[in-house]
């Protein structure tokens, strides 16, 4: 009996039984779904509604340059930065020459005097000012959240 005879006497193995991930075939499927212009698949006349995306956020902080003071924890800084960017504001570096708002967690600091030199109209506020502004959908008056010398 030869090796070839032995193979023909054995029942065939079920697909994938020998660890073959291709189930004994190396043929690639040739049926490729055509995509029409606009990203829709299917034949002519088929209407497919686009899935609604997240709602557009208003540009509440558009053009506003905001400095996040070192008194904020890393978690607070990250959370506030995400909100500022999402609402189209800019987070500026500590050495920025022009700043509209400084968000800090404590009272007046000597470093605030340095910021005032480059940005005399800067407003120093607590983090709740930003949260209240976002809740209202408009900039909240800074006075209740202001940090003054």
UniProtKB/TrEMBL annotation:
- Lineage of the organism: Eukaryota, Metazoa, Chordata, Craniata, Vertebrata
User: Any idea what this protein is called?
Assistant: DNA repair protein XRCC1-like
Q: Which gene encodes it?
A: LOC116957496
Q: Which PROSITE patterns match?
A: BRCT (PS50172)
The superkingdom listed in its UniProt entry is: Eukaryota
Identify the stretch annotated as signal peptide in this record: none
What are the start and end residues of every segment in region (Disordered)? 1-59
Gene3D superfamilies tied to this protein: BRCT domain
Report the SUPFAM superfamilies cross-referenced here. Answer: BRCT domain
Domain BRCT, chain residue ranges per copy: 56-147
Q: What organism is listed for this UniProt entry? A: Petromyzon marinus (Sea lamprey)
């Amino acid at each position: 009996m030869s090796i070839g005879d032995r193979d023909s006497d054995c029942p065939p193995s079920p697909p994938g039984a020998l660890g073959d991930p291709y189930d004994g075939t190396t043929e690639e499927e040739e049926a490729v779904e055509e995509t029409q212009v606009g990203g829709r698949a299917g034949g002519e006349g088929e209407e497919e509604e686009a899935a609604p995306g997240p709602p557009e956020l208003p540009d509440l902080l558009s053009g506003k340059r905001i400095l996040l003071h070192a008194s904020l924890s890393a978690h607070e800084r990250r959370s506030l930065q995400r909100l500022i960017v999402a609402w189209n504001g800019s987070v500026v570096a500590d050495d920025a020459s022009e700043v509209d708002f400084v968000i800090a967690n404590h009272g007046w600091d000597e470093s605030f005097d340095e910021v005032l030199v480059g940005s005399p109209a800067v407003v120093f506020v607590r983090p709740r000012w930003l949260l209240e502004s976002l809740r209202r959908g408009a900039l909240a008056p800074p006075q209740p959240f202001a940090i003054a010398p």
